[in-house]
User: What shape does this take?
Amino acid sequence: MADHLEASVTLPSDPASVSAARSHVLSTLVEWGLPADTDAAETIRLIVSELATNAVQHTFGQSPTFTVDLVLDRDTHLRIGVTDSHPRFPKRLPAAVQQDNGRGMVIIRWLTAERGGRLRVRPTREGGKTITVELPWTVPAHPVTAVGQPEA
Assistant: This one.
């Protein structure tokens, strides 16, 4: 595989775009060799879903679009970045407020740590922010079947 691969998609800040972001990321990762039926693919799908949902729900109409960037470096690290143009950084909400929502960043941090990755939030030059998750890239030799045995 190449030393460096990139993919990007910019979508409208609309709830339907969350599914489009997940689909784009999954199809790209499958092209790059990650089987869609792995735990790693499911974790990445959930991380992208939470990041895209945050970009849609928490920018309060001040970010008409958001961008999902994928970068695979030297077959060792995958970076997933979601950028919007709203200047407010995500923050943990008080427990009482978290009854129905507000857990997205907690979920993302937990999934990232569980996979041995790291999460960063940085401002953009344009005044928005990018939330980046970096994960180790491990492509299994064989997809695992439902009974836990490698496929032949």
